[in-house]
Amino acid sequence: MEQRPGTELLKGSYYIETYGCQMNEHDSEKIAQLLEDQGLCPVDTAEMADVIVINTCAIREKPEHKVYSALGKLRALKKRKPDLISIVAGCVAQQQKQELLKRTDVLDCVLGTHAISELPALISRIRRERRRVCETEFRRDVTSLHMSAPRKGAGSVCSYVTIMQGCSNFCTYCVVPYTRGPEQSRQAYEIINEVQQLARSGVREITLLGQNVNAYGKDLKDGVRFPELLRQLSHIDGIARVRFTTSHPRDFHEDLAAAMRDVEAVCEHVHLPLQAGSDRILREMRRGYTYEEYLEKIRFLREMVPHVAVTTDIIVGFPGETREDFEATCQALQTIRFDQIFSFKYSVRPQTVAGSLNNHLSEDVKKLRLAMVHDIQSAITQQYHTDTVGSVEEVLIEGIRTATGQPFGRTRTGKIVNLEVSENVFIGDLIQAKIIKGLKHSLVGKKV
Ligand code: 5AD
Ligand code: SF4
Predict the structure, then answer these.
(1) Among the atoms of ligand 1, which is closest to the Cα of residue 348?
(2) Protein residue with least CA distance to atom 2, ligand 2
(3) Which one is predicted more confidently, 360 or 152?
(4) What is the pLDDT of residue 360?
(5) What CATH class has 277-386?
(6) Fold of the domain built from segment(s) 389-447
(7) Domains of the chain by residue range
(8) Which residue of 115, 338, 428, 442 has the lowest C-beta tally within 10 Å?
(9) Summary count for the chain: helices (H), strands (E)
(10) Ligand 1 atom 7: the closest Cα is on which residue?
(11) What is the pLDDT of residues 297-338, one digit of tens each?
């Protein structure tokens, strides 16, 4: 345990509920680490906790709704335990600020995205002064960017490492620049130190996190850019695999594909959000590339990194999306044949440029278009999985399924492989597995 200087130890237990993306999951890991360093112990249910943190996501409407229902449940808990401290952290906290405190009286603390490291001190203050607090200032140097934290739950072999935070792109549909602030890269030496520490503690796979990892280092003086960072990380003993997410197509160039080709540890998987296949919509979204330019990136990537898996994000029903625009997206899926996609109905976000447009599509049209995109992609993903049958893939064993006792892990391309229960493998093993079945969402393998 490493108590932070100038802070008092805390008594009791904590529980964290997390919504949203990998970035948020990792923020929850950092919050957990901070609270444990200050003396709080983790518990499995909200009912058992003295401190409850709801770490929220604001990227689409739906996850936001979950927060309000979670707050509803808090009321009953607070009644039973008046000293319970409830905290809303993450993007909804950042966005709504004081409004959240006004909306519900069961909340004690609103913790903005730049204030994570202040949480232990805030808890002490709330207990001492019995006052509700809201901490949502943006800082130039975000302390939590420099924090490392082991991954919870997913075994001890895989870990996230934040390399940058925030986003300065302002795509017209997206709330992230408003909730996480401008792009800020972490110094390369700090990242390398953290990865060395993780390697010493037995981590074998790291995932470098940032909203736009291809822009890494643009704001730093030392000149280390993302491809160079990958090369430097490859020299660290014990790290067998390096992944990264998310890439922005505009900043994705051949130098990164070259690093992927040359650096053994870097896995053959790129998540490259296309968003839409129509140039008109891409322009309206302010994505900074045309469909043809995107295709060119896929061309050189697939040429330079054989067997690379490419996944993407798609938004259907952006304001003013015509039938032709939508068909261009469907055509793009058929042409590019992504390994997997994450598709979303456009949802209005406060503060964004697209939110104030007046040509929004009906919920029914958006639903229909989303279902069509799902159908197209399901067939493609299934085909990829079927084609993998018979091949031998490297799998890093990440855990054992609680329900079935099956060991599982991922291929270098990020596909989930479940092994037979009888296989004699251990978490952290890097094995060769023959793929014997290709299912809808996963593969079944046998150790060779
Ligand atoms: N509506 C729907 N999807 C969105 N995304 C971001 N903002 C919105 C929005 N307002 C999607 C994008 C992004 C992913 C993380 O979430 O596809 O790449
Ligand atoms: Fe949002 Fe665009 Fe930044 Fe991604 S690149 S976080 S979509 S503004």
Answers:
(1) 10
(2) 171
(3) 360
(4) 97
(5) alpha beta
(6) OB fold (Dihydrolipoamide Acetyltransferase, E2P) (2.40.50)
(7) 13-135, 148-267, 277-386, 389-447
(8) 442
(9) 13, 19
(10) 174
(11) 999 999 999 999 999 999 999 999 999 999 999 999 999 999
